[in-house]
Amino acid sequence: MNMINLLLFPIIIPFFFAMILMFFKEQVVVQRVLTLIGLALSLVASFWLIATVKTEGIQTVTLGSWPAPFGITMVSDMFSALLVTTTIIITIFVVIYSFSSIGVERERFFYYPAILFMITGINGAFTTGDIFNMFVFFEVLLIASYLLIVLGGEKRQLRESIKYILVNVISSAIFVIAVAYLYSIIGTLNMADISVKIAEINQPGIISVIAILFLIVFGIKGAIFPLYFWLPNSYAAPPIPILALFGALLTKVGVYAITRTYTLFFVHDIGFTHQFLMVLALLTIIAGCIGALAYFDLKQIIIYNIIIAVGVILFGVAQMNTSGLEGAVYYLLHDMLIKGALFVLIGIIIYATGTSNLREMGGLIKTHATLGWTYLIAAFGLAGIPPLSGFIGKVLITKGAFEADHVIGSIIILASSLVVLLSVIRIFIYAFWGPQKNELPVRDQRTYRQMMFPAIMLVLITVAYGVGAEWLMPYMTDAANVLADPSIYINAVLKE
Amino acid sequence: MITVLLAIFIPFIAACLVPFIHKILTGRRIGWFVITIPLFLFILLIRLVPSLSNGASYLYTFPWIPSADVYFSTHLDGLSMIFALLITGIGSLVVLYSIYYLSEREAIGRFYTYLLLFMGAMLGVVLSDNLIVLYVFWELTSISSFLLIAFWYHRKQSRYGAKKSMLITVTGGIFMLVGFLMLYTITGTFNLQELISMREVIAADSLFIPAMLLVLIGAFTKSAQFPFHIWLPDAMEAPTPVSAYLHSATMVKAGIYLVARFTPVFAGDTTWFYVVSCVGLLTMLWGSVNAVKQTDLKALLAFSTVSQLGMIMSLLGIGSLAFASSESTQIALFTAATFAALFHLINHSTFKGSLFMVVGILDHELGTRNIKRLGGLATIMPITFTIALIGSFSMAGLPPFNGFLSKELFFEAMLSLKEANLLSMDSLVLLFPIIAWVGSIFTFIYCMIIVFQTFFGKVHAPAPGQRPAHEAPIQMLISPMVLGSLVVLIFIFPNLLGTYILGPAMNAVYPQYEGMPGLVPEIHVWHGWEMPIFMTIGVIIIGILLYGLLRYWKWIYSVGFLQWTLDRLYNALLQRIERVASVVTKTYMTGSVRDYVAYIMLFFIALVGIGLLGFQQFIFDFSDDAVIEINESIIIFVMMCSSVAILFAKSRITAIILNGVLGYSIAILFVVFRAPDLALTQIIVETVTTVLFLLCFYYLPEWKNEYKSVSMRIRNGLIAVASGVAVTVIALLVQGHSMYPSISIYYETASRLAGGLNVVNTILGDFRAFDTMLEVLVLFIAGLGVYSLVKLRRKKGVDHPEEK
Amino acid sequence: METLITLLVGVLVAVGVYLLLSKEMLRIILGTAILSHAIHLLLLTMGGLKKGDVPLLTETAAEYTDALPQALILTAIVISFAVTAFLLVLSYRVYQESGRGPRLRGRQDE
């Protein structure tokens, strides 16, 4: 295989393994092993991809070898390569967590294939350079997520999944409408080509209206204000591993798409589009903060923190300067990792206590000290306590905001850290330090240890991600540079 | 110099080792390992004192995140040295004290881990030269303080105090960070030394005042200045060694450090003076007045710490005036205030540290810290009493103790204000010494309370389960004794401290006056009959009077605004926030999908509306339209009718059939529009869909007439119509804006190359084969979904596996 | 012609959205189906209607109608069919599980 197809591996390998798993529906152990092998291979490929992009620049491949704007082009710049890699890392650990928590019944009903298909869709959406193909990848990841959210057939799951699906159907509908409009004006689907042509006509008003439509489409997926209503209840319905995957990955696809379109297509009327994006991002943060304080349910608290993070990232994107974008990329990856870790951790807390209601918990530190400290580190990381990973991203974003003269906005960003801290530290104080309310259910210590392994690994990765910021910085800079200067992307795709 | 860097990291490394070493050195013996760390560092640092007093300073840098201008740089100068010595010196004594204070049954290992963590973080704060690194350690001190306050986490009050202190100090830290980032925006550096050299640039920037205020909020929260002081009394839930160490000697002084450190950067503007000195004085008064009413000795000491910190803060404020002055006599007058601040900083650590330890001993031996249940201990615990006496009298500002010296300097500094040629300051100048004086009277009163109400008067019977009162073991007395003797020694040899320790620090605060005569004044025990000594005498006389009459005027604490505490505000705020958040969230999170859809569509309509009206580009172009033939218009008419009819369908079968009509009509339209492949697919899909609908129809109940209210119908109708209009209007506009020919032309020529004559098929099978493959995948996954939906069912009553 | 079809699309969208706003599951699913009809028509219209011959390459035709939207619609039709089918089965299961018509109200903490 020549180097040029490397960027397809993280998409194709999960797909391929998912297909193989079909033959082992009843052999759960085989499924587990194969899933891990598939993900490990994808991880190797994605690391290789990062290295290649770092040394050789953006990788592209046009399927069927047709010249660029006509075939479907897959493009891997540093931003997408980093996202692809992070996605696979999180999936590996969530899958390991699933071994001891999801239950054999679900495993026998296409749990692992569905995850792998979803990864195919997510990585595809991160990598594609064709706007309609992005729609198709979205549908792949959505239908896989539909399968995951209903899997198990619990009453609440079924009820919430209908809402989830309906909202996404609407969003997909608007997606196609927006693509149709864009096609009518620009006459092309290749993203680099779209960027060139929008630049040529200097983004007339109607294009800005289409930009807003795209914002709605991806905003529904990415859960921005005021389109996030569907998220908290739907995400809380499925079991923890699925929630962890959704929380860490799915909204981020929407955030990615907004970032991509708002840095590649709609960059000629920043005064309107990006100002608008920024206001929405700030409102998203505020709404998320209100929600995070409103609940005494573990899942809800962390779920609302997803929304806050989406706001923070998009605020960084809206600055449209290198610092802001660098911060956004850094924070995006941080948030994926830390959300994965936190969901797994609260999953273990729920497993240990048998409830997700904070008011019914207490005294866990005596019996589950490791869990407590791991959680505390993750919580501090989420709140951006230095030198953990949330801190550097936020500092960069704020720096970008200062450069763009958005002082109030940056204060809101930093103030939101406080709400985040309050919301997650509350969990710690209640669940670990508080007086023990109920007798803890008897749990298998081996299962507990098996669950702790992925949690600790994820937290360690986030810590390394924060402390080793310098080592990662060149990659972030590369990613931000492409976002800040669309011509790099365009030249890579449309090179003759 | 790498020593400085080591000084920061050694405690952290030791903190990590404690859990392991604790396995070997079990019980309280682990303390002997821990004590070597601060002791070693203290010796390491104190060896550098002579060279520092010769004007040396030690800078060591290594890159951490150079791409973001974050360097791990440490800088040891005179100012840092004072704090570093306090941290390690008092740290050694506190560890020694704690070895006998903590009971063997407690989680001693955890305690020392936190304590070392704090020690490292605190050293990091005072030794960092990079603002970001400083902030990192700043927040680490908040966190270690959080963990230490909640050391007895099973107590509700401990958890409350821990959360409160962390929230307030972290908030301050975040504001401070914003300030730092503003400074970075102005100067492009996080480096403190560079910032100081760029103070003119900073002062000229419009962000100067905001940055200053934000940095000050950070300092004020950490140093418990009014109105952020409310966390400190609650922090007293921590074990007493922690209170002595963090909450009186070191961590609360981080704010003082920050203000002193930033004086050269900000002091050029008198705003700095006003804010720092006014807040400081107010804090001093508020703290001392509130201390008098406390009955818990530790709470009393907490308010006294608040008050003393306010006093130091106000002195720093006055010291900053030296930057605004030009005459050398004036400069010397104001720099003396800073000198007094630094001097008192050290004095306070000595006497307050010893007092906390005394209270710890009382608590440890008698099981209570309540003044009302203590008394007559002077003869039973003579050593403890002596230490308490020394500490309290020093705090009250009496000779022959070091507090007297700094109190004199304090009055002198307050009086020096009348020399300042500040505009419209006359009345305020008069007020400053008066407030200082009143504050000192109250200070005197609570010092007397500590000594006389605890150690004199009636001996109380021991609390149930407690042994009768007796002197504490000598091991616990060593540390307070050392501090007590320092209180006296400093009084006798104040200038030793002045030359070697305070001098270099003054150079750090006033880099431009370095070496100026009078920058490091001689400290005299006797000044002659001047204003300060009269003020001190006044304090003593009125203080004794008021103390004697205490029970006659104590009622004023129960009336008016003194009753009203900021604590209540904090509690109410926190509760209110949670309640409001809950109400707000539950109002819009109805859980109804219909509302979600309505929100989304309304937002869609609103945005499109704003966008269209905002751009005002209503260019419609119908010239390129294809002609309409009659049969086509009939189909379209049928479709419109049948779609609208679905809304009014009485039975679901009608609706399904009407939907089928729509689907097949679209197939016909596809034929008309030269898309035969589409028409075929549409017919197949439509047939299967209809069959599926009918199948489900078999299982689902007959649809009821929806009991929608009229207003609901109108609302939904409006949303629906508006959505339709929005889609149509944009579509029409878009058609008028068609700017480029489609890329499709390429496919027509290229299809021949690909060997296909049907262009659509070639696109699907070749150019965009990836789409087609994925579309099949979607269908496949949907199939899996349907299969598992039908096959996999939960047993009744079993929900999430985690929640079994 | 384009204008007329665009109007038709508008009507279909309005009907679709109105149905989506109802309580009854079947109506909602019908709403999604109608919405997707509207979108497919829109997509076709956006490429221009009847601008040339059927895109089957022959020697005679001078101009062909835009083939790309047709290809996209084909993909979209299959996808929306998959989703509709899934939704239908799901609503059947919800009904079965709860023993009555799928209720879409209700808080998660009930």
TrEMBL record, chain C:
UniProt main location, coarse: membrane
Location(s), subcellular: Cell membrane
Keywords: Cell membrane, Membrane, Transmembrane, Transmembrane helix
InterPro entries linked to this entry: CPA3_antiporter_subunitC, NUOK/Mnh_C1-like
UniProt keyword Cell membrane, yes or no: yes
Top-level taxonomic group: Bacteria
Keyword Transmembrane helix applies: yes
Membrane topology term: Multi-pass membrane protein
PANTHER family in alphabetical order: ANTIPORTER SUBUNIT MNHC2-RELATED (PTHR34583)
NCBIfam families found in the cross-reference section: PRK08600.1
Name of this chain's protein: Cation:proton antiporter
